TrEMBL record, chain A:
Organism, as annotated: Streptoalloteichus hindustanus
Cofactor: [2Fe-2S] cluster
Name of this chain's protein: NAD(P)H-flavin reductase
Domain FAD-binding FR-type residue range list: 16-114
One biological process term in Gene Ontology: pyrimidine nucleotide biosynthetic process
Keyword Cell cycle applies: no
Binding-site positions, [2Fe-2S] cluster: C250, C255, C258, C266
PANTHER family reported for this sequence: DIHYDROOROTATE DEHYDROGENASE B (NAD(+)), ELECTRON TRANSFER SUBUNIT (PTHR43513)
Pfam families per the UniProt record, alphabetical: DHODB_Fe-S_bind, NAD_binding_1
Sample GO molecular function, one term: metal ion binding
Keywords: 2Fe-2S, Iron, Iron-sulfur, Metal-binding
Keyword Iron-sulfur: yes
Cofactor note text: Binds 1 [2Fe-2S] cluster per subunit.
From TrEMBL, chain B:
Protein name: 4Fe-4S dicluster containing protein
Pfam family, one: Fer4_22
Domain 4Fe-4S ferredoxin-type, first and last residues per copy: 253-284, 334-362
GO molecular function, one term: iron-sulfur cluster binding
Organism this protein belongs to: Streptoalloteichus hindustanus
Keyword Metal-binding: yes
InterPro entries named in the record: 4Fe4S_Fe-S-bd (IPR017896), 4Fe4S_Fe_S_CS (IPR017900), Helical_ferredxn (IPR009051)
SUPFAM superfamilies: alpha-helical ferredoxin
Protein's UniProt keywords contain ATP-binding: no
């Protein structure tokens, strides 16, 4: 019997079903942040683009959205995810030992669109754990370095103990073709680096504003201040991109939790042009 | 071939339920339970409510005995078809880590087809809204599509809208123009108790052919047209005739939200009864070993404090921000996200609000405040 009223949808794999992965490496970044390298035990997830996230499942505990922090040019199907302990699920995920299993779905959401900066300057500003989704963007730019003019990374944290990717940062700083500024909000006397907000080096960096693409990720207050500064310097709001975060239960636009005004951040974000984000970030408790 | 428009009597309607059962459908329709008209699975046609109407107002719902035995002379009850297409609670999957590997077993989707008997035009629009949200994007929800695909829709056009109804001002109306297998328009008068039946699909045509019926006369058609035109003129409520989508975005910082919040209990009733509110959360359940887990999905509400929880705290801590989120989403940002309004004008949120907050009144207040602002 056929009906006119009812639609018929093609059967597809369940987007809510996590794909099993095994932890093959566990790197402690800071006292509360760990990077896991996850190898699929069966078929791998589709390749990710810098800025996208996955839903990671700690079996029996729960599922949370986590940005992919790995190398987008790698083809081994291994997921690299940097996770800060903020609750029960992230505690279980970061506590998963090498050989342990987790689930992953995705990748989901919008990307930084690093190639759109080709021919111009690329600026990345990351605060704290906000470096995690920026790392793939930087790795992608460095893999195609000749396409970009200046590549500038401004990386900050509350204090030296909260800086992630320390080894990698040291390597980036030795390169002549990328300008790396590392600052911390506060530090003891043994910190040899700069003590400042990330806005300070950002204000000093040589840029050609009209040909700059800036990618920002970190606390919302940092994002707002850095964006304001870049706009002040003449970077168009459409070329400033920010990665935003809200509660997510599904990652695929069905649970409603990640709304920020008109945006469903799992679908229309996490990477959003500042021109679209600014009106939403200006309203309290939106 | 049968006629595209016919007339059946009450006994044929009862017979229709048996016919649908014989076709293998789970039949869901309005029944009287605990002083409310609720949608429930029908064992037979006699389970259908008969001779009851409703009296609704903001914060008030009463069933009322009617002088006749009309089946569909009542406006929206506490439930909607959402309960059957997007259940309040369902298991998504089971996990097992007992052998050191992770095995994920998705929940099998239901395979029994449902027939919805007595779908109101507003609720038919609401099903279309849910279709766009849960099945229209890049990742259709397989639980939703498994339930939705093959649903047989029998509309009951509204001849007696309630005091809290405002479908007309949301662009709908008491008559469903399309999207059904059969559409019924009920009439009880000296000439008897009967239903004008419009056929909307081949399946509907086959059903009608199997029922005792007669061809509709011009007089039958005229009576139904008049009754439904009359119903459209008798909506108990109306939204202000302004661009609601713009109004809500422009009213983000309105002082009116604080005033609503002084009455709102943040109980979430409006979101539970709303036929389009789709938000869910997930819960994990494990056995004592922790090796066998289940993920459950259940409805959640943007009025819950932890709905917006982000590490470190909630985004929407104040009640006014949560009411603003709900109403703005419903009337405005829904367009941005899913291409239509999220409100169909069924009036359930008004009826089931324990303090009688009325979305049409709040929209009117925001309109008045906005025009005052423009005036100064």
């Amino acid at each position: 019997m056929t009906t006119a009223a009812a639609p018929t949808h093609a059967r597809r794999p369940d987007p809510m079903t996590p794909v099993p992965h095994r932890v093959i490496e566990r790197r402690r970044e800071t006292h509360d942040t760990v990077t896991l390298r996850l190898a699929p035990t069966g078929s791998a997830l589709p390749p990710f683009r810098p800025g996208q996230f996955t839903m990671l499942l700690a079996p029996g505990v729960g599922e949370v959205p986590i940005s992919v922090s790995g190398d987008p040019t790698a083809t081994d199907g291994v997921l690299e995810q940097t996770i800060r302990v903020v609750g029960a699920v992230t505690r279980a995920l970061t506590g998963t030992p090498v050989g342990g299993v987790v689930g992953a779905r995705g990748p989901y959401g919008t990307e930084w669109d690093v190639p759109s900066a080709r021919g111009g300057d690329l600026v990345l500003v990351g605060g704290g754990c906000g470096l995690a989704p920026l790392r793939p963007a930087l790795l992608e730019a460095l893999a195609h370095r000749a396409h970009y003019r200046r590549v500038v990374a401004v990386l900050g944290a509350r204090d030296p103990e909260n800086l992630v990717f320390a080894d990698q940062m040291a390597r980036w700083r030795r390169r002549a073709d990328v300008e790396v500024h590392v600052t911390v909000d506060r530090a003891g006397p043994d910190w040899p680096g700069r003590v400042d907000l990330v806005t300070a080096p950002l204000a000093e960096t040589a840029l050609e504003p009209a040909r700059t693409v800036a990618l920002l990720c970190g606390p919302e207050v940092m994002i707002r201040r850095c964006a304001a500064l870049l706009l002040d310097r003449g970077v168009p709001a459409t070329r400033v991109r920010v990665s935003l975060e809200r509660n997510m239960k599904c990652g695929i636009g069905h649970c409603g939790h990640c709304q920020l005004g008109p945006l469903l951040l799992c679908r229309d974000g996490p990477v959003v042009p500042y021109s679209a984000a600014a009106p939403q970030l200006a309203v309290r408790e939106l | 071939m049968t006629d595209r428009v016919a007339v059946i009597d009450h006994s044929a309607l009862v017979e229709l339920v048996g016919l649908l059962h014989a076709e293998g459908y789970v039949v869901v329709g309005p029944t009287l339970r605990e002083n409310a008209i609720v949608l429930a699975e029908l064992d037979d046609g006699d389970d259908l409510v008969s001779g009851w109407g409703v009296d609704t107002e903001a914060g008030r719902y009463r069933v009322v005995r009617r002088a006749d035995d009309a089946v569909f002379a009542h406006s929206a009850g506490p439930q909607s078809w959402k309960s059957f297409l997007h259940p309040a609670r369902r298991r998504l999957l089971s996990t097992d880590t007992s052998d050191g590997d992770l095995t994920v077993e998705p929940e099998p989707e239901p395979s029994r087809r449902m027939a919805f008997l007595g779908v109101r035009p507003c609720d038919l629009v609401a099903i279309g809204v849910l279709d766009r949200v849960l099945a229209g994007g890049r990742y259709p929800d397989p639980g939703y599509t498994a339930r939705r695909d093959g649903v047989l829709v029998i509309v009951a056009n509204c001849t007696e809208p309630g005091a809290t109804c405002f479908c007309v001002s949301m662009g709908g109306g008491p008559r469903a123009p399309a999207g059904f297998d059969l559409a019924l328009t009920e009439r009880v008068d000296d000439a008897g108790h009967r239903f004008l039946v419009e056929v909307g699909s081949a399946a509907g045509e086959e059903l009608l052919a199997a029922l005792p019926h007669r061809a509709a006369t011009d007089a039958d058609l005229r009576v139904a047209d008049d009754d439904l035109a009359d119903a459209a003129e008798h909506m108990g409520r109306a939204m202000p005739e302004v661009d609601l989508r713009a109004l809500l975005v422009d009213s983000r910082e309105s002082p009116h939200w604080a005033e609503v919040a002084s009455r709102c209990l943040a109980c979430g009733n409006c979101t539970m009864v709303c036929p389009t509110c789709f938000c869910t959360t997930t819960e994990e359940v494990t056995d004592l070993t922790g090796e066998h887990g289940e993920r459950w999905q259940r409805w959640s509400s943007c009025f819950d404090l932890d709905f917006s929880y982000l590490h470190g705290g909630e985004v929407r801590t104040s009640r006014q921000s949560r009411y603003r989120q709900w109403m703005t989403h419903k009337l405005s940002t829904w367009y941005d996200q899913f291409g239509s309004s999220g409100c169909v004008g069924c009036g359930r949120c008004i009826v089931w609000c324990p303090v009688g907050i009325d979305i049409t009144e709040e929209a009117a207040s925001l309109t008045a405040l906005a025009s005052r602002e423009v005036g100064t």
